[in-house]
Amino acid sequence: MPNPRKAAIVGCGFVGASIAFSLMQRSLFSELVLIDANHKKAEGEAMDLSHGLPYTASMEIYAGDYRDAADCSLVIVTAGANQKPGETRLDLIDKNVAILKSILPNLTATGFSGILMIVSNPVDVLTYAAQRISGYPAERVIGSGTVLDTARLKYELGRHLAVDSRSIHAVIIGEHGDSELAVWSGANVSGIDLNHFCELRGHFDHENSMQRIYEAVRGSAYEIIERKGATYYGIAMAVARISECIVRDEHAVLPISVLPRGEYGLDNIALSLPSVVGHEGVEKVLEIPLSPEESTALHESAAQLHEVIRTLGLS
To answer: So where does substrate get bound (predicted)?
Structure first.
């Protein structure tokens, strides 16, 4: 049986190390294994993180190998090539699928039976590939999806409306990438229709505002990469939130990357859809109401991913 208080992170670059730091601060696990092709890098990160343990909850953080992940309840994969300035997430496919093919047989050989979370980009394609390569049940293979994109949307709306972003209920679905879409039709602020709340705050040009905010969200990663070379803090917080839902069996709804089984008329693909998340992974993919335009945009996003997946020969 997996140890519910033990997790592993595969890949100790900026993203993996930031996730480890975020998980340590949340005190979700009593044991955290860091795995990297460069074992010394993993050792250094483990040492650095461990020196902060006197100021947080007791836990063990160490560099290990795939055998140490055998009894983990959660394995988080961040290993892969990073997105460079001017590159799209989909440009990373061949390199990162190859890396995934080298990683997963090592994990499956251990008898690992916990939840596998993919964070490396393009996360939707790699989530699909991970399920096909590993053979794990679809509910146990998830991607970080558009959890970060949704946080970015809430942040931008919070700034626009001068309201706490935690009071905003809105979601990004589809590809974690250029074809993602905001579900404006269901957005609200503490139960108040978004457009109505906007008008209460003196904003009436809804269409232009929504387009501006959507473009800011969609382009966030590019803007950050142009300025500092990589994104890692935001995704670390998003992954920690997903991990929290799993460890605490919250049954929370998050737009993680999943393999739908006919929901929205989609299958043989992975993309981000609102899903109930608990200690067994995906409990249910939710079919939320979409406007006709949003439904069309979701299927267009799925079509782009289908085309990419087809070239991988993993179906």
So the answer is: 83, 89, 121-124, 149-152, 231
